[in-house]
């Protein structure tokens, strides 16, 4: 249902994204990504690595690194997918927010909800450089 390919939306050395290999109807479970959770106070160590741009909030006291394709979904303020955290199974579940066409890149809003438009760290960094 999904594959990893080079994305025109990513810049830098790792320009990958998640793409649909078939048409995916709205509300379909696209991917279940297992979680490696760690306490927030340990995030200072992660911030010294490339992983800092890929960590997710995982409840109030934890952050998480996602396995599978979980960390490879790119961001959009108008996403075609969303995720829900399943704390019972320790997974992030990615769902189609709308019908997704075969070949289309699957995008999530890194703010957590599809309609939140708050600027993200990389947008703020771009603004500071101007």
From TrEMBL:
Q: What GO MF annotations does this protein's record show? A: histone H3K37 methyltransferase activity
Does the keyword field hold Transferase? yes
List, in alphabetical order, the GO biological process terms annotated in this UniProt record.
methylation
Q: Where is the SET domain?
A: 1-111
Q: Which UniProt keywords apply?
A: Methyltransferase, Transferase
Task: List, alphabetically, the InterPro entries matched.
Answer: SET7_MeTrfase (IPR009207), SET_dom (IPR001214), SET_dom_sf (IPR046341)
Q: Where are the transmembrane segments?
A: none
A Pfam family found in this protein is SET
Protein name per UniProt = Lysine methyltransferase
Q: What species is this protein from?
A: Bacillus coahuilensis p1.1.43
